[in-house]
Design goal:
The complex is a heterodimer of chains A (about 450) and B (about 290).
Chain A lengths: L2 H13 L6 H13 L5 H9 L5 H13 L14 E6 L11 E2 L6 E2 L10 E6 L2 H10 L3 H11 L2 H14 L4 H30 L3 H4 L13 H20 L16 H10 L18 E7 L5 H14 L5 E7 L3 E3 L1 H6 L5 H12 L6 H12 L8 E5 L11 H10 L2 E6 L13 H4 L5 E4 L3 H11 L1
Parallel strand pairs in A: 5-6, 5-8, 8-9, 9-10
Antiparallel strand pairs in A: 1-4, 2-3, 6-7
Chain B lengths: L4 H10 L6 H12 L4 E4 L6 H11 L3 E6 L6 H4 L1 E3 L1 H11 L4 H4 L9 E3 L1 H7 L4 E6 L6 H13 L1 E4 L3 E4 L5 E6 L7 H5 L2 E4 L5 H11 L5 H15 L9 H13 L14 H4 L3 H22 L1
Parallel strand pairs in B: 1-8, 1-9, 2-5, 5-8
Antiparallel strand pairs in B: 3-4, 6-7
Classes of the chains: A alpha/beta (about 450), B alpha/beta (about 290).
InterPro entries (chain A): Uncharacterised_CoxE, vWFA_dom_sf
Protein name (chain A): VWA domain containing CoxE-like protein
Organism (chain A): Desulfosporosinus acididurans
């Protein structure tokens, strides 16, 4: 590896949010020099990667720099071929034909029962990808478009049907799932590489960090990372003294037992007085979540966040709504959060038609639930504000706003979309204290710091 | 000191630990740079066992600190022996301050806990800080000085620097994430479930009486179970237990229809056992169809 490539790699990794200090760079250089028999990539991976999730980013940066020839012009399209070897023992139904257009497609030829190792070829045509990139902005949508263009979804559907029919064994099904994720990883990488190439910057990689990605597009691994981060933020808050104290003397009551304990450590001399720790007054929290289809991914994280805060509050109620409100507090705390998204969807289908009506929901809340909320309560509303052109019925949210201490609104849409014609955020603005965007984990962190 | 990753892997193998070359390389570089190694991975993949085997391979005394919630410096680093200090004061039995003026905060009254013990040790040691994720964040921050400088500071005594450069291994089950500051000071190793071949060699070495056929069947079965969406996947130690249980029951093959009671050895949650029992029925019928 020459010095220029080394510096590019370090810069690329840093831009992709992997922290690399000068000391790390020095260590890598020492080891590269001292152990020429160990592969350079292995040394760099060992010394620069500190989190399992950073490995994917490392591989991407490495491939972008050292396999740059893969991303040449359209003439090099044949070279831009990644071959994945798979053990495809019994490829189902769509046998003997290469399905897909444009990007070259996925070779799905049936091995006709022969137990042979087969190549799955993924070709990506940079020229066509550029056309798609101009049309579609979001990375995940772009990847989906590329996969759709390759007929990937037809291919996976055929496998799913075969699995349901029982013509695939479980082992074959798992092998197929592995292959699926390899294909997606490969396409993601190639799209990312082309974006980096086109923008001539590492920004597309930085945008893939789990903290800035939209919560709705997170992979399972990223979801667990976000949840782990939420746990960490809430833990910090739990040990931070609150601002609400019991009315007592300025510094509280003297703690004799603690003074004696401390004086024993100092030869029996009293150096300072200790006071009883004052207990923050636990407030009430009411969480109101819009669980229409577009909101489900965001609800999952908010509920997780709330569950981490549970012990900090005297009382927490969680209500879901679409056009009617239903209280799910008791159910939520007992449930496994892994499948809450499916549960939300199935509840929604049972109880509602699926079209949000904020006015109706607030009316129901004001009439049926407000009686049990004290004046100290805080209401957190999670919703995109899309009211499907129904009446906002402002008088009910006004009534709620007067009754409780404060209302916060969390909206997964970007702020400029809050003024869309069917969005009621502008109507409700006088009644909530502050609205926050909660699209990514980074937004959630801001909310944790400001609201809770 | 080993001269190559292969040599280190060989030394660990002699101590009963099979390590893949990639992990051995990372560990080797960590040892060469005298950096602490943070080993992460699911429970039961051999993180602690790796540290124990490394201590034996490097001929170092193992000092272990088991972390838990609420662990503080008085349990991990040092404490003052209050009873001894009081006794010493009582023994003075005089009102003359000049006579009883003693330095109660000298090494005589110091109780060394695992971290201090490893720093002060004259002989080579390996310090294992096990399950660090169970401890609080404050403790994690406290460790930074030890990890970066191999020294600790006791306010009454000053800074104590290590004499024998201990190898420091930290393990974690990922129940919480660590700060960037801690990660930056360590070499990171992520251990995951072994490949089929490696698990077979682990099993053969750990339970030598098993037939090759049974070892293969057990490993294939465990690998299959690991693909299921379970709360706790079976680890290497559980597959060893499972193989031992089969041996104890004098079974020479893994029969899907006859594993009742044995599943508790492999899985630890009733929900998971129910899930696996359902799958076993399916696998058994699939196998019968194939046999026909």
């Amino acid at each position: 590896m020459n010095g220029w490539d080394f510096l590019r790699l370090i810069n690329g990794l840093r831009q992709a949010s992997i922290m690399i200090s000068s000391e790390d760079v020095r260590d890598v250089q020492i080891c590269l020099d001292r152990f020429p028999m160990i592969a350079e990539k292995q040394i760099m991976k060992a010394l620069l990667i500190r989190r399992p999730q950073d490995l994917i980013m490392f591989e991407s940066v490495w491939r972008i720099i050292f396999a740059a020839n893969l991303l040449g012009t359209a003439d090099d399209a044949e070279d831009s071929t990644r071959v994945i070897n798979i053990e495809d023992k019994n490829s189902p139904s769509i046998g003997g034909q290469g399905v897909g257009r444009g990007f070259g497609g996925i070779s799905l030829s049936n091995s006709e029962g022969h137990d042979v190792s087969k190549d799955l070829t993924l070709k990506i045509n940079p020229a066509k990808l550029e056309v798609l990139m101009n049309k579609i902005g979001a990375f995940d949508d772009l990847v989906k478009a590329v996969l759709a263009d390759m007929n990937y979804y037809t291919w996976i559907n055929s496998y799913e049907l075969d699995y349901q029919r029982g013509s695939l064994t479980e082992e074959e099904w798992y092998a197929h799932l592995n292959l699926r994720s390899s294909i997606i990883d490969e396409i993601r990488h190639q799209v990312l590489a082309l974006q980096v190439h086109k923008e001539n910057s590492w920004q597309p990689l930085a945008r893939q960090h789990f903290l800035v990605k939209p919560l709705s597009n997170l992979t399972d691994l990223e979801k667990s990372l976000v949840k782990s981060s939420i746990r960490k933020w809430t833990r910090k808050l739990a040990v931070r003294p609150g601002q609400r104290w019991k009315p007592t003397t300025r510094r509280g009551l003297i703690d004799i037992a603690r003074i004696v304990r401390q004086s024993v450590q100092c030869n029996g001399l009293i150096f300072k007085l200790s006071f009883h720790q004052r207990i923050p007054r636990a407030p009430e929290l009411i969480v109101l979540c819009d669980v229409s289809n577009s909101m489900a991914p965001f609800v999952e994280f908010l509920i997780f966040l709330i569950s981490c805060f549970k012990r900090c509050y005297r009382k927490i109620r969680v209500c879901f709504f679409i056009e009617t409100v239903w209280d799910v507090s008791d159910f939520i705390w007992d449930e496994d959060f892994e499948d809450i998204r499916q549960k939300i969807t199935s509840w929604g289908h049972k109880i509602s038609l699926g079209y949000s009506d904020y006015g109706a929901a607030f009316k129901e809340l004001a009439e049926n639930y407000l009686v049990n909320v004290s004046a100290r309560g805080t209401i957190v509303i999670l919703g995109d504000g899309k009211n499907n052109y129904r009446s906002p019925q402002k008088e009910y949210i006004a009534q709620i706003s007067e009754r409780v201490k404060q209302i916060f609104w969390l909206n997964p849409l970007n702020a400029e979309e809050w003024n869309d014609p069917d969005n009621i955020m502008k109507h409700y603005q006088p009644f909530y204290r502050k609205a926050y965007r909660c699209r990514s984990a980074e937004d959630l962190l801001k909310i944790v710091r400001d609201v809770f | 000191m080993h001269t190559s990753p292969g040599e280190l892997a060989q030394a660990l193998k002699q101590e009963g630990y099979m390590i893949d070359l990639e992990t051995a390389t990372t560990l080797f570089l960590g040892l060469y740079l005298k950096k602490p190694c943070l080993i992460e991975g699911p429970a039961g993949v051999g993180k602690t066992h790796l540290a124990i085997a490394l201590a034996k391979a490097e001929r170092r005394k193992l000092i272990r600190l088991q972390c838990y919630e609420g662990l503080d410096i008085t349990k991990a680093l040092y404490d003052w022996n209050y009873a001894k200090q009081l006794l010493r004061l009582q023994l003075a039995k005089t009102d003359d301050w000049e006579k009883i003026k003693l330095n109660l905060f000298s090494e005589e009254f110091l109780l060394a806990r695992p971290l201090l013990e490893s720093i002060r040790s004259e002989e080579p040691v390996l310090l294992l800080i096990d399950e660090l994720d169970k401890s609080d964040e404050e403790f994690e921050s406290f460790l930074l000085e030890l990890l970066a400088e191999q020294q600790v500071t006791i306010p009454e005594l000053g800074t104590i620097t290590s004499k024998a450069n201990p190898i420091v291994i930290l393990t974690s089950n990922n129940s919480r994430d660590f700060s960037d500051a801690l990660r930056r000071r360590c070499i990171h190793i992520y251990l995951t479930y072994p490949t089929l071949e490696r698990e077979m060699s682990i099993l053969s070495s750990q339970v030598p009486d098993l037939t090759e056929q049974l070892v293969q069947e057990v490993c294939e079965f465990v690998a299959k179970v690991r693909k299921l969406p379970l709360q706790k996947l079976p680890s290497v130690s559980e597959s060893i237990d499972f193989a031992c249980a089969l041996k104890a029951l004098q079974k020479d093959k893994v029969n899907y229809s006859n594993l009742m009671g044995l599943l508790n050895v492999l899985l630890k949650y009733p929900k998971d056992i129910v899930k696996l029992e359902e799958r076993l029925k399916k696998w058994d019928s699939e196998l019968k169809v194939r046999m026909d």
